[in-house]
Structure formats: structure tokens, C-alpha cells
Amino acid sequence: MLSVAEAQELILQHVRPVPPEPAPLTPALLGRLLAEDVVSDLDSPPHDKAMVDGYAVCLADLGTGHAVLPIVEEITAGRTPQVALHPGQASKIMTGAPIPSGAEAVVLIERTRMVGDRVEITDRVSAGQNILRRGQELRKGQCVLAAGTILRPVEVGVLATVGHTVVQVTPSPRVAVVATGDEVVEPDQTPGPGQLRNSNGPMLLALAAREKTQASYLGIARDDLDSLRSLIRQGLAADVLILSGGVSMGTLDLVPGVLREEGAVPRLHKVAMKPGKPIFFGTRETATGRTLVFGLPGNPVSALACFALFVRPALRRLAGHPEPLADVGSAILHEDYPYRSDRPTYHPARVEVGAHGWQVRIVPWGGSADLLSLTRANALVLLPAGDHVHRAGSVFTVVPLDL
Ligand code: AMP
Ligand code: MG
Q: Which has the least CB within 10 A, 43, 106, 140, 249?
């Protein structure tokens, strides 16, 4: 049986990033990976510009820190100065407006007052004061964003600055979600005897959507070959097919068999971990591409943990992220915790910033079906196999769920 780390490596080896495509400059770019170097088409600012409201002056007039000067022009942002400034003159100027030729500094308006139609200035002025020079922020031809950057609001602003309105990004992967089980009913139904509501379908759809994928829900397949085959065939048209349930050793665990019949090559069927263990991973090749297939355990906490450990890194790599496991970190255990298990356990936990960095508290947990306890968790903490009293202050690996 593979370890979690071995399984993650194996899965990532089978992921081929989706080729880039152009996208418009909209909020839909957030979280996507930039697939080109972006170069500025202009100098910014495009001219020497005033950084404050005030008066443009020549240094010669303010050697003593005091002058009374006639105002030759008022320059507002967006206007071009019409008059060159000479010693003995001032131009009123607003933030963002171009500096007139001859001017050497801008005096803040608060350091001035009007005396009739002239301006009295009381300020020590240095060369270039309150002037942002042409090209000081960025220069034409300069690479402002490198390929591989993950786009955040600030990068959207920079793309706008340089007029880059069509952006090459790796497209969001198409994900299909299928639930399975004769006992599973949709959330708007009242479960009959032996039935339960489908929590995994909506949850996996939400998990996939949060990874910036185009996720669609295909429904509940019954535990029979025809029902499974039909939904699996639909799902195999996506880049990633995620199924829940039907992958363990029960008599009605038919998912791996049907996936095989439909051309998915099994790559992995069990991982040494709790919750989880049975997890199917396979790949299916067609003329148009490769589908990654994940058969997750039916118990909701197992499905969630397997998504965080295996599906999420695959989705990130698919979208081009170079380090899809970069968010796995470490934290200091907050309190002693005795725990025994035959397998490494990814236990629900709460990670918080403490006085000495990240600390992790164990969240009480009733096992693989106890999804409710996960509402108090924001991470999974890895507790090694064996019979231990884990000591407060020791360092543990944590996998974020919602950090
Ligand atoms: P399975 O992996 O199909 O053996 O399912 C394991 C457990 O998870 C069973 O108790 C199922 O009833 C439960 N289960 C399976 N699918 C779902 C689902 N979509 N939502 C909630 N629980 C489920
Ligand atoms: Mg089942």
C-alpha cells in the first residue's frame, strides 16, 4: 500500500497541465495562472507629474524659503501645460498633472496662501520635490508580470495599467462530480428507512469550484452497472471526473470495475491513511486528451480528506501551478493528545496563529461519517501510526482546508 506522499507523487506524475488560452481582463482571472510574460506598452507616469496639489516653482526663487509669485497658469490632471515656467513665476498644479517645463519642484498647497492674485510660499524646497519622474514606476518594454504568476486583484490592476486586456492564462479545468449509492437521496428529499442525503455531491462540487474549476454535478448513480456506466461515460468527457462511494470491497462497490471497462487505467487503489484508504485513481486517454479519474470513499469526511490530499493538488497542477502542495505546512501542538491508530491519521484540527507561530488544536471527531465536527476545523493534522501520547509543543504537519 502506498503512503500518502507516494500516492501524491504518483498522481502528479500523471497530470498534464491544460494548454493556455486567451481570456479577457475580468474578475474571472483571479486565481488563474498567467501563461505569458507581460510587457509594458508605456512609461508610467508618461510625463513628470505632480504628486500633490500645490504650486510648481523654480528653485532660484526659494533660496530663502520665502517668495511671493504671480500665478501664470493652472494645470489640472489630464491637461497639458501651455506655459513654460521662468524664475519669478509659479503655476498652480493639481495631483497627477504634468509638470510644466522649467519647473523644478512642487510646493504643497498647505505651505502657501494667496496675497491678492499672487501666491505667498513659505517652504524650503529641494530639487524634484513632489515630482514623480517619467517612467519612475515602470518603463515601456519592461516585463511587469512573469509567466507563472498567480493572478490576484493587484495583478489585474497592473494588467489594466499596461493595457493588457487579453491575457494568456491556463484555463480552468472542467470537473464532473458523480455521487453513487442505492441509499443516497438528493438533499431536497426526506430520506426513507436506510437512506441518507447526498452531502458529498454538493460538497465536492463546492470544493472543486473553489479551485477555480468549471465544475458540474451529474447526479447520483445507483449501485448497478447501467446506472454507473451512463454517468461515468458523461463524466469522462471532463478533464477530471470525481466519484464518491462504491470504491471499497463491498458487494456493490462496482465503481472501479466500470471505470476499467470504460477505459480508465487504474494507477492507485489504496493509500495508507485514515480517514480514507480505498481511493481509486486512474487515467483515461482519448484522441482529445486525458481524463483524471478519482473514486473517493463515500464517507463524507474521507471524501473531504481525499479531496484535500489528492484531488486538490492534481487540480492545481492541471491549472499550471508549479508547487501544488506548497500550502502543506507545520504547526505546534497546543495540548497533549493521546491517540492510537494502525494508519497515519489526518485528524480534523484548528490551526491558529499563536505567540510562537502557527499552533494546532485537535478538534473532537466521531470518525469518517462525522462531517459536522469538520465545521469546527480549518485543517487536518497528520498524526503518525502507533500508540502515542502526542506532546504539547511538538511540531506536526498540517494540511489546510480553509486557511
Ligand atoms: P461507500 O464508500 O459507497 O461504501 O460508502 C461509505 C459510506 O458513505 C456509506 O455509509 C454511505 O452511505 C456513505 N455515503 C456514500 N455516498 C454518500 C454521499 N454522496 N453522501 C453522504 N454519504 C454517502
Ligand atoms: Mg456505496
A: 249
CB-CB contact of 179 with 227 (8 Å): no
Of 227, 228, 299, the one to substitute when testing ligand 1's pocket (max ligand atoms within 8 A of C-beta) is 299
Rg (CA), the chain: 31
210 contacts 327 by C-beta, under 8 angstroms:
no
Between the CA of 3 and the centroid of ligand 2 the distance, in Å, is 24
> Is residue 244 in contact with ligand 1, taking CB distance under 6 Å?
yes
Look up cell 484508504; give the residue.
277
Task: Please provide residue 157's backbone torsions phi and psi, each rounded to the nearest 5 degrees.
Answer: -65, -40
What's the 383 CA to ligand 1 centre distance in angstroms? 25
Q: Are strands 112-115 and 184-185 parallel, antiparallel or unpaired?
A: unpaired
* pLDDT per residue as tens digits for the range 376-391: 999 999 999 999 999 9
Is residue 246 in contact with ligand 1, taking CB distance under 6 Å? yes
CA of 182 to the centre of ligand 2 (A): 7
Secondary structure (DSSP) of 275-324? S--EEEEEEEEETTEEEEEEEE-SSHHHHHHHIIIIIHHHHHHHTT-S-T
Residue type, 10: L
Q: What is the reported pTM?
A: 0.84
Answer yes or no: is the C-beta of 300 below 6 A from any ligand 1 atom. Answer: yes
**All residues at 6 or more sequence positions from 299 whose CB lies less than 8 Å from its CB, including other chains:** 275, 368, 369
Beta strands 265-270 and 357-362 are unpaired
For residue 194, the CA-to-ligand 2 centroid distance in Å is: 12
pLDDT digit string (tens) for 140-168? 999 999 999 999 999 999 999 999 999 99
d(CA 3, CA 248): 18
Say if CB 98 and CB 134 are below 8 A apart.
no
* Residue 360 to residue 349: CA distance in whole angstroms: 6
Q: Which ligand places an atom closest to the C-alpha of 248?
A: 1
